[in-house]
Design brief:
Strand content: 15-25%
CATH superfamily of the largest domain: FAD/NAD(P)-binding domain
CATH topology of the largest domain: FAD/NAD(P)-binding domain
Structural class: alpha/beta
CATH class of the largest domain: Alpha Beta
Radius of gyration: 22 Å
Order of helices and strands: EHEEHEEEEHEEEEEEEEHHEEEHHHHHH
Length: 406
């Protein structure tokens, strides 16, 4: 038997960064907001390396952060083919940082609580409450029912609840499957450079090594096919560069998760309902990063909800402006990144070696040395495309893509 309804203006499912930031923005707008999180602690388990653009964090007001959240900063990236061919980009200043994702998630959640949002930990949502084709709240697994004027799904990669509406969730063909580890030591690694491993080392995505100042590192990969753990084992023992970098290292932590790369789902709103973050596939198709896009769309969602509640209209027609504003913010860059992802996936291992040698020979790294924007990659390309090395590289990449996809 259901217990009496809890009442709120906005019910948010999930206390990841997208859910908590949406709650923060709503609470700042004076909207009674309740967040329902299935785990007993915010930020656990972690599902992300936490490699984030400093420029984007600054735009959102999250840089600088407390020192215990920022693990390292980076002004370089080294890319390797499966045979060890290397291409490096040296930037003029730190452009990215790695975060302790647990502490970062908790930091945002604490801000939301201080602004007035209420968090309910260890409160998994069983189902959506749907009446007369409107989402009216959620049913919790503890048999409590929550009545809300608006429900926001920020549950992460799962589409379990979203599919209870008329919306289509994330399709399996758009996913890659990641293994994320922490290792206790690395060797011959630049302290402020990210290592990236391309090609058959991680089919359909890439591998990464992100060092920390204490000599430990985050090591992982994602793949579209096969067992990511098997690819990681191969990477650590057979890759000509990685096996040297991680020689003698022990894995001290490991987790697995899926990453959506197909671009935003075709519709992110319904009557009384919005989807924010990974559940809406608001994720970069090139790198799999979803934190910045999730926070960006969370702020958009909060402003749309504020207007809808003031009008007393939470119909799909009223909330459709959320889709438009998210598309205005992201669609150009996501469209570019989808094309770039298709190009990257088309390259054989031999092609990868050729591409990296070409980039090194023609000075592409030097041409990109002043880049600061890495999240909105379509816009970034527009800023550098006039540089001769980049222009030549684009022509070369275009020919490779045409030959691979006649």
């Amino acid at each position: 038997m259901q217990q009496p309804y809890q009442q709120t203006d906005a019910a948010i499912i999930g206390a990841g960064p997208a859910g908590s930031y949406t709650a923060l923005c709503l609470a700042k707008l004076g909207i009674k907001t309740d967040v329902y999180e299935e785990h007993t602690e915010v930020g656990l388990p972690t599902h992300c390396a936490g490699h984030i653009s400093i420029h984007s964090l600054k735009k959102l007001g999250y840089y600088p952060l407390p020192k215990n959240i920022i693990e390292n900063t980076f002004n370089a990236a080294n890319f390797y083919s499966p045979t060890g061919t290397k291409f490096s980009i040296q930037l003029k200043k730190p452009v990215t940082c790695t975060l302790n994702r647990t502490k970062f998630d908790q930091y945002i959640a604490k801000q939301a609580q201080q602004a007035g949002a209420t968090f309910h930990l260890d409160h998994p949502v069983q189902s959506l409450r749907i009446e007369n084709h409107y989402v009216k709240g959620v049913n919790l697994k503890n048999h409590t029912s929550v009545s809300s004027k608006i429900t926001i799904d920020a549950e992460g990669i799962s589409s379990r609840l979203l599919r209870q509406t008329k919306l289509r969730g994330i399709e399996g063909k758009g996913l890659v499957y990641a293994v994320e580890t922490e290792i206790n030591q690395v060797h011959d690694v630049e302290p402020h450079a990210v290592e990236v491993y391309m090609g058959s080392s991680a089919p359909g995505f890439y591998g990464w090594l992100i060092p920390r100042p204490d000599g430990s590192a985050k090591l992982g990969l994602a793949t579209k096919h096969g067992n990511p753990q098997s690819y990681l084992n191969y990477l650590m023992t057979k890759h000509p560069v990685v096996k040297r970098q991680v020689k003698g290292a022990k894995i001290v932590k490991i987790n697995y998760h899926a990453i959506p790369l197909a671009g935003s789902i075709n519709r992110v709103y319904d009557n009384g309902f919005l989807a924010v973050g990974d559940v809406a596939s608001q994720v970069k198709p090139t790198t799999g990063g979803g934190v910045i896009f999730g926070l960006t769309c969370g702020e958009i969602a909060a402003n749309v909800v504020k207007s809808a509640l003031e009008l007393g209209d939470v119909s799909a027609k009223s909330l459709s402006v959320y889709q438009k504003r998210c598309d205005d913010a992201l669609s150009f860059d996501i469209s570019f990144m989808l094309r770039l992802r298709r190009f990257l996936d088309s390259l054989s291992d031999n092609r990868w070696s050729s591409v990296l040698r070409f980039c090194d020979r023609f000075g592409v790294g030097r041409a990109l040395s002043g880049v600061e924007e890495i999240d909105y990659q379509g816009r970034m390309l527009m800023q550098v495309v006039t540089k001769p090395a980049v222009f030549v590289a684009l022509g070369y990449f275009g020919l490779l893509y045409l030959f691979a996809n006649p």
